[in-house]
Amino acid sequence: MIAILTGKIFSKNVDRAVIDVSGVGYEVFLSTDTVARMADKGEDILLYIHTNVREDAFTLFGFLQEEEKELFLILKTVSGIGPKLALSMLSGLRVADLCQAITHGDIKTLTTLQGVGKKTAERVCVDLKEKVGHLSFDSSPVSGTLMPVVPVTGSNVADALSALTNLGYSDPVARESLASVKKHVGQELFNTLSVEDLIRESLRALV
């Protein structure tokens, strides 16, 4: 089984990346949060890997931190949660926030995650409440010196943020992508961009 991949980023997409390891490209499925925090194409990377083997598929799931992989494996132990749903849950909340929601029985927060209904959220809390406490701290690396974007209600930035979250990106990831655009184009030009331009440039920053 593949447990770790070390190589160069050959390409990135919304939910996956291809990692070049000595001339062999490995397709790895990732959370949208992981994709947003990855380095740029051509940069070196180390991913912790879970190898999922079925009769009809051999799939790799990747994580930047061991804690993310550990939580992914813990989530998969819950009845009704497969690897894709577990990865989707990690796309919606960072490890510390997801663990805190589970340990506190925060059904409302858990049901905001794509694919998670009330019954699934309740099952997760019951089954995992005593199993994720050691992960309830933020081990994610600081993404940089970007100042968070706090949009004014009704502004183009607020509409763009809403559109990005509707596309499946978590709120922190969407804000970080907008912050990247702001840093790239400058405050003055950023304030004049249309909703469509903001979305397009934000998606470009995520790839």
Summarize the structure.
This protein has 207 residues and is of the alpha+beta class. The chain has helices at residues 32-37, 66-75, 83-92, 95-103, 107-110, 118-128, 156-166, 171-185, 187-190, 195-206; strands at residues 4-12, 16-21, 24-29, 44-54, 57-63.
Explain how this protein is built.
44% of the residues lie in helices and 19% in strands. The chain has 207 residues and is α+β, with helices and mostly antiparallel strands. A five-stranded mixed barrel has the order 1-2-3-5-4. Helix 2 (66-75) packs across helix 3 (83-92), helix 7 (156-166) crosses helix 8 (171-185) and helix 8 (171-185) crosses helix 10 (195-206). It is globular and about 50 Å long.
**Biggest sheet, strands in spatial order?**
1-2-3-5-4
Tell me the CATH architecture of the largest domain: Orthogonal Bundle
The largest sheet is: 5 strands, mixed, barrel
**Which band does the percent of strand residues land in?**
15-25%
Question: What is the average of the pLDDT values?
Answer: 86
Q: Helices, strands, pairings?
A:
Layout (H helix, E strand, L loop, with lengths): L3 E9 L3 E6 L2 E6 L2 H6 L6 E11 L2 E7 L2 H10 L7 H10 L2 H9 L3 H4 L7 H11 L27 H11 L4 H15 L1 H4 L4 H12 L1
Parallel strand pairs: 3-5
Antiparallel strand pairs: 1-2, 1-4, 2-3, 4-5
